[in-house]
Hints:
The chain is of the alpha/beta class. The protein has 9 helices and 16 strands. This is NADPH:quinone reductase.
Amino acid sequence: MKALVSTEYQPLDRISLADRPKPAAGPGQVLVKVSAAALNPLDLALITGAMKDFYPVDHPHVVGMDVAGTVTEVGPDAAGYAPGDQVLAFVPSGGTVAEYTVATVGPRLARRPAGLDAEHGAAIPESGMTAVCLLRAVGLGADESLLVIGATGGIGLYAVQLATALGARVIATASADDAGYVRGLGAADTVDHRAGDVVEQTLRLVPGGVDVVLDLVNRGEGLAATAQAARPGGRLVSPLFGPAELEREVTPVYIGSFDPAPGDLEDLAHRAADGRLRVELGARYPFDRAVDAVADFAGKHTRGKIVITVDAS
């Protein structure tokens, strides 16, 4: 089968479409004929080796973790699925920008409901489940205020909508060009990260500080500055680790990897299918332009998700 492959930790422009053995479904797994796959920032880090000390991969490595497609084979103990099932999944080991991939039965695999096409389905798993887990970890409640830094990216796409659905007041970072977009996702206010300090702009909107800061951009000590937008005793949540203690009794909450609950992915898929959750596709690429998709994802600003269509039939 054809797959998008990195043969070692290498620059992004060194990856290529290459022949790889077709995988087989093992115990608790299903084999999926890939219809579409989506890219995430982690995919880039796994290609270059930027996270090899924390998230090493074996080579040759097939790029991609998000997928939508059709089950063609069911392994032992993979109860609940059958050939022909339309599914979407997150595959932590990678391998989705390929003609076939394997997915493990559990919270990271779900049936794709009618009304949700494969391209939009592939754009949900990693970003959508990460957003769910971040909001759950920080205990965001109705009537609380939330600043989302990185609102135009994949996780931000879902975090803004899910927080709004919870009843929170969302303030989102966005350039002037993207302000209308994030308001369309549900943000009550925007702050232009290109026009001035995000913390200062946020405190003008919420003088006492927001209840929760969700930072999807900064890491390390940079999160200490971000935390200044939170009220005393507020919370900061991030998928990128930072200081163990923050000033003014702001509580940091970090999740290095998301741990979805059973039903999370199904819920996101059904919300998308019935129109309660917007899935923004910033760009679509055919399989033969998968290398271009990676390059553009790394080098261009894109709203929402980049999707690669592997089998358009």
